[in-house]
User: Fold this.
Amino acid sequence: MPDELILDKEHLTGFLRKIAKERELVAPVKNSHGDTLFEVVSSVDDISLDLESKPVMPAKNFFLPRTETLFHYQRKGKQYLFKEVLPEVPRVLFGLRSCDLWAILFLDVVFQENFKDRYYLNRRSDTVLINIGCREPMRNCFCKSAKSGPFLTQGYDLQLTDLGDRFFVEIGRPRGRELVEKWDYFFRPATNRDRDEQYEIVLEAESRFERIVDFDTAISRFINNEVDDALWEELGNRCQGCGGCAYVCPTCYCFNIVDRPDSETEGQRLRIHDACTLAGFTRLAGGHNPRHERSRRVRRRFYHKLPFAQEKYHRPSCVGCGRCVEICFGRVDMIHFIRMVCERPEKSKEASLRLGEILVRAGVISTEELKIALEKQDRTGKLLGTQLIEDGLATGKEIAFALGRQLGIPETVGTGGVVGR
Amino acid sequence: MHRVLTTCCFCACGCNLYLEVEAEKIVGVIPSREHPIARGNLCLKGWNSSEFVHHKDRLRYPLIRKNGRLVKASWEEALDLVAKKLSDIKERYGAECLGVLSSAKCTNEENYLLMKFARAVLKTNNVDHCARLCHSPSVIGLSNAFGSAAMTNAISELAGAEVILVTGSNTTEQHPQIARFIFDALARGAKLIVVDPRRILLSRFAHVYLQPRLGTDVIWLNGMMKIILEEGLFDDAFIEMRTENFRAFSEMLRSFDLKHVQAISGIPVEDLRRAARTYASVKRAMIIYSMGITQHISGTDNVQSIANMAMLTGHVEQECTGVGPLRGQNNVQGACDMGALPGTLSGYQSVADEGIRKKFERVWKTDLPTAPGLTATDMFHGTGDKKIQAMFIMGENPALSHPDLKTTRAALQALEFVAVSDIFLTETAEFADVVLPAASFAEKDGTFTSTERRIQRIRKAISPVGTSKPDWQIIRELSSRMNCPMDYESPAEIMEEIAMLTPIYGGVYYDRLERGWGLFWPCPNRDHPGTPFLHKGSFARGKGRFEYISYRPPAEIPDDAYPFYLTTGRIYEHWHTGSMTRRITALSREQPEAFVEINPKDAKRLGVANAKPVRVVSRRGEITVKARFTDDVPEKTVFIPFHFREAPANILTHGHCDPGAKIPEFKVCAVRLEPVQ
Assistant:
C-alpha cells in the first residue's frame, strides 16, 4: 500500500460506515441548532458531517472528560470498597482539524512524561486520529504561527486533503495504515497530478494566513521581564474569571479532584476540569493565595502557555485554534495578549530596577550595591542578575528566588515544577 | 452520550447551552456558539450549571411534618394533605388569608399555572414572587413613563451604542454576557459612564465614573437633567412629538438647585457635567440599570427619573438606544409576564378590569376574585387586617432572601400551614408542614423569558431525580384534588392557553420556538416575527410621560449608634440564596464563605484585620463575617453579599418599602462594626 492515496468523496460514507461497525466513530457534526460539535456517530446516514467549521469544543474531552468518575466507593462498616472506572474504547476521531490533533499529541506527552496517568492513557490507548487539513483559515485561526497547521507533517494516523471531488489521503502512523488496508477497496493510489494538486493546496492554505502571531517575541519579552505591570493589571481587569479559556482550550489539562457522595455510604471520586484563572486554583489551605489578584492569575496562565511550555516542551502549548479568541469576555486571549506584548515599547531597565528592589528588600544586597550594579550594567549591557552574580553580590539561587517573586511563582514550587497539576 | 440544548438556569441573560448526558447523568455543559448571547462561552456559573442537579441533598421524596419533624411521605399523602389544609383554612378564614409565592426560577408555564391555581382554585389574588424584591419599581416606573415595563432593546444592541451609562448594576458580576457586549462596544470606541457607590470593575473602563452616596440617585439624575436642560442638549423634536407633561416637568427641574448635587450625593457638579454632556451629545445612548436603582424606598422614583432622562434626550425607541432594566433571575421577566403578581393576570392585564376578567373566566370556567392581592412583602411584613394564615411557596426562599429576617421568619413560623415545593430543603422549606420535591430545570420542558424579552425553550435532559416532579405537574395534581381538574399533558399545551389569553404572547407556540433562538415579545400572532426593540414610532402608552421627581432620603441613614452604610447584593460566583451554587464545587471553592467589604481606612480605625471576623450589627440583629479590605467601597460604607445562610445579610436589613412597588430597601441601612476578639 503506497503512503499516498485517493478516497473519492462518494466512498466516504461507505468507509465511515465500515469504521463505525468496529469502533466508536467520532466526527464533527452540525446539529439542528447550527452548532458543530464532535459527536459519537451511531448512524452515518442521519448526520450532517461538517468538515467546514471548527467544532465548538476540542477533542480533548474524549480523553479527559469535563467530569470523569475515577472510582466508586462504598463504605461497609469500617471498610471501604472501591471500584475503579477505566474505560477503554476503540475509537476513531475523524475530521479533526490539525490544531486539535496536535493538541492531543501534546496531551499524550503531558500525561505520561512523569506519572503515567492510567485514566487518560486508557481512554486514549485505542484511538485512530484522522485529521483534515484546512484549505482556508477559519475565524481567529493562527495555527501557522503556532506551527501546528494548517497541515501536519507527522503525528496523524491519516491526513486528508480536500481536492474537491476527492480526498488526498496520507498515511502516517501504523493504525492509519491498518484501517486503510482493511478496507483498501475504497482507495486508489494517488497520481503525481494528485500530489502536485495537494502540494499547491498546502502552499496556498499557508499563504492565506493573515494573522501573524509572534510567539517568539512574546516569549522572549516575557522571559526578559519586559511585560510591564500595567499590562497585567489591564488584563486582570478584563478577565472575568469564567474559566472558559481553559475549558475550551485543546491543551489545557488542569483538573481538580473531588469526592461526590451519592448517599451516606456511597459515592464517587471525580476528576473535573479546572481553570488557572480561578482564585480557588491556587488558594492554599489556610486561606493564603499566592495569586490573589486576578492579574497574577492571568499572568500565570500565559506564563504556563508560553515560556514555561517553551522551556519544557520546546514549543508553546498553544496550538492556535483560536477558540479562546472567539469566546473571551474581555479579550484576554492568546492573540490579543501576544499583540499587546509585542506592541509595548521595551522597558528592560525598569524591570531590572524592580528585580533590584526585590533583592534589596530581601536583604540580599544594599541600595548602594544595587546602584553600582545598575551603573555597571548600563555599560556592560548585561542582565542585572548576571551582573550581580559576576560581582559576587548575589548567588544564582538568590537571583532565581527574586525572579520567581517577580514572575509570581510561589517559593515552595520554584521555577521547575508543574504548578498546574 | 447525547446532548440536549436548553437555557441556563441562573441569570436572565438567557444563554443557551448543551447538557451532556450519559446514562441519565449530566456529565458536562457546552455553550452554544450560534446562540446570539452565549456566543460560545458562559460565565463560571453557567459552565458549572449542572453539578447541583445530582447533588445528594436533592429532595427525592415528599416530606410531611409529624411531631415537629419532617418525615418521608408518599406523594398521595402529601398532596392530599396540602389540598385538605388549603381548603380547610380557606373555609375557616376566607381566601384572602391564603398566600401564594410563585417562582422566577420556574418556567412560564409553571408560573401561569400557579397564578391560575391561586386565582381560579384558591380564589385569591394573593400571588406574587421575587420580582417584588428586584424589579417591581421598574414595572411601575417604566409603565408610568413608557407604558411597558421591560428592556426596551435587545442585549446585542448594546454593542452598537455610542454611549452606555451603567448605574446600580455590577454588570460584569451579575450579567457577564451583557458586560461582554459592553466590552464589545468599548472596543468599537463607545464611551462608558458608570455611576455606582461601589467602585465596580466596569468603573475601571469608564470614561466618566461618578460615586454617589447610597440612596441619592434622584439627586444626581435630576442634576444631570438640569445640566442637559441648561446647556440645551435635550431633544426638543422628540419631546414635542413623543412625550407629554414636559412643561410642568421642566419648570420643576429649572427650580432644582445644582448645589444639592454635591451636598447630598457627593458628586462634584463638574463631573456630573461631563457625564451629562457625554450622554446627551450622541445619537445612540443606552442606560443599563439594576438593583442599585430599584432596591430603595424610592425605587420607583429612581426608575422614573431614568425614564425622564432617556426621554429628555430622545434616547429611546430606536435601535441601540434605550433603557435596560437588567432582570436578575433566569425567568423573572417571564414570571411577571405570566401574571404571578397580585394586580395583573398574564400579559400585565389588570385584575381590576372586568372585561379582562371575563375573558379569563370564559376559558378557566370559573369566576375570579376582584379584590387586589397582597404583595410578597406585605405577606410577611404587612400590618393590614388581612393576615395570611397559610402559604403555598414554589421555589422561593424568603427565609433568606427577604429583608429583616427575624420578622420574616417569625411570620413564616406563625403560619398555620406552609407547603413548599423546591429542589433542596431550603431555609424556607425548614418551616414547611409539607415539602414537595420538585424537578430541576434539567428534568423538565418549558420556556424561560430572558431579560431582553426573549422567550426560549428549556428541554428535559434527564428524568426527574428521585420521585420529584416538575412544578406544573405538582400544581396540576393539587388542583385536581381541589375539584378543579387540570388536564394539561405537556407544557406546550399550557403555552397554547397562555397564547390565547395573553396578547403579548399571542404568537408563541412550541413549534415556532424550535426554529431560531426564541421569540421576543410582544409577539401578538403566529405570523408576527417578535419585537427586539420596543416603542418604535410611539410609546406603548401612546406618549411618553414626564413626571418630576423630588428626592426622598433612604429610610434609615447612619447615625452615631450605627455609623456605617450597609449595602447588600450578589457576587459573580453565587446565586441568590446559594441553594444551588453553594453545592457546586468550582463555585463554592471560589467563594466559600460570607464576607464584608470594608474600606481599609475604616478597618484601621476600628482595629479590624483583613480576613478576620468582624461583627456587623444593625437595629434588627447581628452577624459575624470575615472582613475583606477593599477601597472599592468608600469610607463609611460596607457591602455584604446575601447568599450565605450561616451569616445572612438580611438579618441586618429592614423591611421599609417603596410605597407603590413594595420593594424593600436592601441597598441602604445603617450598621455598626465591631472587631471580634
Q: What stands out?
A: The CA atoms of residues 226 and 255 of chain B lie 9 Å apart. The two ends of chain B are 54 Å apart (CA to CA). Chain B has 23 helices and 28 strands. The domain at 63-126+331-520 of chain B is CATH 3.40.50.740 (Rossmann fold).
